[in-house]
Specification:
With 777 residues, this protein is mainly beta. It contains 5 helices and 56 strands. The protein has a 16-stranded antiparallel sheet that branches.
Amino acid sequence: MRITIDNFDGRGPVDYTDAVDASKAPQVIRKLNAGSEMKCGLVAASPTFIVPVNGARVALSRMNGTAVFTGYLTEAPQYEYLGWGQSGPVYGYRLSAKSDDAILDRKTPPARPPFVARSAGEALRQLTTEMLPGWFDTSAVEDVDTLAYFPCDRQKSWSQHAAALALQSRGSYRVLDGKLEFAPIAKKTMVLNESAPEFDATGLTLSRTECVVNDVTVVGRVEPSTYVKDYFLGDGLSLRFYLSQTPFIRSARTLVEEEYENVDPNRWAVTDPAHAVAVGGGKLLISGGTGGDGQTLVQFIEKIELGGAVTLQHGDVSFDAASNGVIGGLYRNAVVLANCVAGFRITPSGTQSQIQAVVNAVATGPVIATQAGWQYVFTTRIYASEIYRRRQTFHSSSHPAGQGRGGQETPADVRIVLEVHEIDASDPGSWISASTVLYDGVITGAPDYATYAPVNANQMHCAIAFTRMMTGVSAEVRSAIPNQGFRTRLVGSLADGAECSISTAPALQFYPQSAPAASEQIVVSYRGSARAMARVTDTASIAATKNGSDDGVRGRVRNISSPAPRSSLDCENAALALLDDGQSFGNSGEYKCWSDFLPGKSADVFPGDGLEIDVPSVAPAFLGIVREVELDVDDLAGEHCRYRISFADEAARSAGFDFLAGEVRSSLGLDAVEVASVGSQTLPDLTGASITQITSTSVTINCGITPSAGHGVEVRRSNFAWGKDNDRNLVGRFTTQTFDVPRLARVQDYYLRQYDSSSPAKYSRYTTALHVDWQYD
C-alpha cells in the first residue's frame, strides 16, 4: 500500500509511504452511515520532507489502485520531537483525516424546498449535486426506498442529512475516492463459516442476549385526531368565536418566496425549446411558446402535497398581448391540460385574454376579460380533509428497503378555491378591493400529490412578478348569509387578503372589514390534536414465552424520533416493525482477522454489509449487519491489515429506528391490538358528518354515509366510554344517514363514531365532533 498527500501546492499528490512511522501505522475507522477517519504518523527523516497542511487531500490505496481511504486533513498535523538525526533534529507528525464527505460538510445546504414523494437515493443525489456540482460520481446511488417527506435543514450538515436519509430508508452510504455509494442495508453479504479454511475461531467474540418483545407501545408526534365542525351564528357585532377544541396546527411557513431575480434551478425546472422564458426587471417574462400544450413550462422541482391548508400565489401577472395557456396549474403527473386538477385557463380574446378556472381539465365558472395595463394576482387555496396524504414507512429485517410497513396513500377530499384579484394601477381602491372567486368546490378523491407549474404556455405574453407557496392553519371557515349559499372565508394574515385568523386560544377571529352579518351561519372545520400512540401485542409470542408464574409478556415503550410516526396508524405500523425483530435473542459481536482471511475471502468490508454468522458450534446462525470496521495497516509493503469487524443483528440494535431517551409524559392507557388485527379493527371515520338544521330543541345530523346492515352511528355527549355496554353519556344509536338529536342548551357538543355488530364491536378510529354555539330562535 501507499499513502499520497496533495498539499495543493502545485506538485499534485506526493508519495509519503517512506515517511510512515511504523509505530503509528495507518488506522482507518469506518462507521455505519457516518464519515470515515484515518490516523497515522509520519517521520520527517528526509530534508525534502514537506509537512502536510491542514486541508490537504490524503489517499491510502493498494498498489493496484484500489482505494482504502480518501479524505482531507481536518486539522494541522501535531508534531513531536523525536531526537537528533544525522542531519539535525527529527520530528514526528500525527495526522488525522476525514473522508471525502468532509468537503460537503464545509458547505451550508442550499435553501431548497423539502423533498416530497422522492426516493431517498434521489434526494441524496440531488442534495449532493446542488452543494458541489460535478465533484462526486453519484452513479452508484440507488433509490433504496421512497420517502413521503424529507426537509432540508440548513443548520445540519450534508452527512447529517445523508445519515437521516439512510436511517429512514434502511440504507447505508459511504464516500470513497470521489464516489458516493448508497444502497440497501446488507445488499452485499459475506459468510463467516467455521468450516471455511480462512476462519479463525480465536478472532470471534459473540454476545447473545434475550431481546424478546411481544407487547410494544409506540409514542409518536402530536397527530391530527378528532374531525371537528363548530357551528356559530353571527349577531352583526361579534368578531370572535371560541372553538370547541384546540386545532391541530401544522407550523405555518413559507415554502417558497420567489421574486425572480433569476430562475433558481434548486426550485424550478424550465422546459423552453422556443426560448420564450426569460428573467428581467425582477420578473419572469414569457414571450411566446411552441404552440403546444405542455411544451413550454416553468415547473416546481418538487411535488405539492394536497394535504392540510396550502396557499399558492401564482404572481402579480400583467399581459402584453393575447395569451393561451395555464397559469398556476396543479397536475396529476405530467404537465398537460388533460391532467390539470386545478388552475387558471388563459385563452385569447381579440387583442386581450380571458381568465377562467379549470378543474379536472374542464374550464368552469365565470370569465374575466383582461385589460391592458392591469395586473392580476392569482391565488389557489387548498383545504384537504387530511393533513398528511401518505403514511410513514417503517423497516425491519423482514421488511427491508422497498418492502417497508406503511407508505400507503391516505384518501381525501380537497376543497379548491381559485380567486383573482384585479388591480388597476390608476385606481388606488383596486389594491384593497375583494378578489373574484372563480371556483369554490370540493374535488373528491383528489390525488395525494400534484405537480405544480406556474406556467404552461401554448403561446403566452406576460410578466410574472412573484410566486409564493405557504402552509397555514389547517382549518376551513365557511359562512352563509340567510337565503344565500355558503362561501369560503379566507384564513390567514390580513396582509395576504385573508378575512379571519385562527389562534391557539382557541378562537376564530374575524377582521373588522369581514365581520359576519346578523344571522350569518358560520361553520369551522378542522382537526383536533392528540399524541399519536398505539399498543400492539403478539399473543402467539406471549403464549410461547409463558412459563409457570411468568405470564410471558415482554413489554417495551418506544418514543420514536425517526422515522417519525405522525399518526396512531403510523404508530401501529412502527410497532409491527419493532415486533418483527423482537421475536428472538439479540446477537452481536466482533471478528478480528488479517485481511488475507476476511470472511468469504472478501476484498474489503464496509459498514452496512451483511455478515452471515454460520458457526453452529457456538451459536445458532444469524445475519448480522456490520456496524463498524477498524483496520490497522501493520504491513504497508505486504498490504496486510488487521481487521476488527463489529456487527449486530436488528434484534440487538435497530438499523431502521432512532429512539428518544426522554421521559414519556403522555397517558399510556391504551387498548392493545393483536398483531394479526392491526388495520382491521377500525371502521371508516365519519369525515363527512355535518349538521343540516338547528332549532331551539333539536339538531338534525347527516352522518355522511348510509349505514350498511349491522352498522350504525353512536352519538355521545363526550368523547369517551365508546361501546354498547356504557350508556351514561349516550345520546343515541342510529342506523339511518339522517337523524335528529335533542338540543338542551345554547352550547352543545355531539360526538360521533361508526360501529358494527361484531363482538366486540368495531368503531371508527377517530371521533367526529359537532359543536353548536347558536342563539335560540
